[in-house]
C-alpha cells in the first residue's frame, strides 16, 4: 500500500471513531436551564422539545441549604414522597445519568414538590 492510501485509511478510522464516540456520549441538560432546580420549577414545560436518551446527564443546580433531589419511582412522584428507597442527591450541582425508560425526580424538602412544583419525569429512549 502506498503512503497516501494508508494515510487515507488512518484518517477514515480516526473520523469514524470520533463520530461513534459522539453518538454514544450522552448530552448534558441543566434542569430548569438558567433558573435551575428551584421553587416554581415546571417540569412539564421544561421537558418540551427535548429528546432524552439513556446515558444523557441531568444536571441539577440548586441551593443545597434549601433543596435537594431524590430519584423516586412513579408512586413517589405522584405522592411527592419517598415510598421506597429513593436515591438522594445533596450537592447542589448533581449529575444524574438517565436510564432507559421513565426517570422520576422530586424535592421532598417541606412541600416543595406538591406546592412548589419541584418534580420532574423524563422519558429516555
Automatic annotation (TrEMBL):
- Annotated GO MF terms: electron transfer activity; metal ion binding
Pfam families assigned to the protein according to its UniProt record, in alphabetical order: Cu_bind_like
Q: Which residues form the Phytocyanin domain?
A: 27-125
Q: Does the keyword Nuclease apply?
A: no
**Database matches in InterPro entries:** Cupredoxin (IPR008972), Phytocyanin-like (IPR039391), Phytocyanin_dom (IPR003245)
Matching PROSITE patterns: PHYTOCYANIN (PS51485)
Recite the UniProt keywords alphabetically. Answer: Copper, Disulfide bond, Metal-binding, Signal
Q: Which Gene3D superfamilies does the annotation name? A: Cupredoxins - blue copper proteins (2.60.40.420)
Residues annotated as coiled-coil are none
Organism domain of life:
Eukaryota
Signal sequence span is 1-26
Q: Name one GO cellular component term.
A: plasma membrane
The question of whether Disulfide bond is a record keyword is answered with yes
Protein name listed in UniProt: Plantacyanin
Amino acid at each position: 500500500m502506498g503512503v497516501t492510501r494508508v494515510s487515507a485509511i488512518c484518517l477514515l478510522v480516526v473520523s469514524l471513531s470520533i463520530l461513534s464516540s459522539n453518538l454514544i456520549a450522552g448530552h448534558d441538560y441543566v434542569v430548569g436551564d438558567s433558573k435551575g432546580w428551584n421553587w416554581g420549577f415546571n417540569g412539564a414545560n421544561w421537558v418540551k422539545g427535548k429528546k432524552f436518551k439513556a446515558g444523557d446527564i441531568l444536571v441539577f443546580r440548586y441551593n443545597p441549604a434549601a433543596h435537594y433531589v431524590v430519584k423516586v419511582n412513579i408512586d413517589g412522584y405522584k405522592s411527592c414522597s419517598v415510598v421506597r428507597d429513593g436515591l438522594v442527591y445533596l450537592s447542589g450541582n448533581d449529575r444524574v445519568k438517565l436510564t432507559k425508560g421513565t426517570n422520576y425526580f422530586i424535592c421532598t424538602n417541606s412541600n416543595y414538590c406538591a406546592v412548589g412544583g419541584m418534580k420532574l419525569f423524563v422519558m429516555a429512549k
